[in-house]
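Entry 14. Structure prediction run on the chain below.
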Amino acid sequence: MVQLTFAQFKRMKPKYKRRLILVTLIALALCIGVLFGISKGIEALRVRLNTTTLDKITAANVLDKASMNKILEVMKQDDPANVLVVDSVLTMSGEGRVTGLTMNLTNLVSQGSAEEWRLTATEKKAKLRKVKTRYENLNAQRLRLMEFKTYYPALSRAASPQLLTLLTDRAPAGANGSYTFTDHFGNNLSPEYDSFLARGLEGVWVSRIGGVSGFAEGYARPNDCAPAVVSVEAVDTARSKNKKVVLLPPEDRFVVLLEAGPYA
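Output returned:
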């Protein structure tokens, strides 16, 4: 292997110095590119190994009791009280059909370890991915996050016929529009929703049997609930023509509290 000393480099003609520097930079860039590609490949493999496709589950049935049990089975969690819901985003068509769900979960494995999971469901398939294992005690999350076993049945009440009737009466989205239920409260065990009501959003309580009623600032919840800010993405009828569908920008319209409790 030929080695070039600094003294030899200094004696080189300027044009050869420039060529050597250019070749060195190209080789360095290629090495960085290869390392980056290897890193991305390893990350993609890790994601694939940690992702499970939930058989025969799509957005249409992801909120069913059987789907909830399948999720716990994949997580290898025998006690559903040890799974907490961090946040969720549920999308529903203007006709009340669930079209998508994203939910972040914490699985409290032991006193010294916990797993972060992400559930995603579309109209074609549903996947559950273990995002990270954290070797620390996350039991303090119980003070602000609802248990999966009560939250999940509550969220299924978003498809309540009575709620859909209220949404379509007060804020019609149209057949090609959508409603999005977003829980980014950070504390869904005791959600702070008065600030949304002060902005003009309408409060809606959905009971465990699907009945709906309105509420105002200062409302004391009779039970735990899965909270959500509901935004409406309605069809712009003035600009939509023939098969072309134009949607208006999403608008926050409701604060919906879905009462917790077992499946009906």
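The longest helix spans residues 14-49.
Filed with the rest of this week's runs.
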